[in-house]
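[job 4417] fold queue: 2 targets
>>> target A
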Amino acid sequence: MAPIKPHRACGACGFYKGRQVLVTKADIKVKRTEKRKKQEQKEKERMAKLKNK
């Protein structure tokens, strides 16, 4: 009888049984770029307010 393989999440996407259980480098990169864009937008708005005063 063959040994039963352990449960394993996909190393590429981080999913197991249809749910994301691991945070991948790609996920981290996407979140980082979204955060940077949001921060840049806030900075632009702040500078526009200072210019209008």
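>>> target B
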Amino acid sequence: VEEELRRERDGGPRLPLRPDHGHQLLDDQHRKSNPGYSLIGRLKGLAEIRGVELAMRQQLS
């Protein structure tokens, strides 16, 4: 995380986040999608990643 903060500060490349391969939740179970690429499951995964990122940033500052 400290390395990513340094990259942001220095204007360097950002590391990609991959919230894919989510679970099938709610309406996802009734939609046609490729395995692991459900809409709501991927949004949940992204929210979890953002929450972890925020918690770690707060701990480091």
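[job 4417] complete. Note on B: The chain has two helices and no strands.
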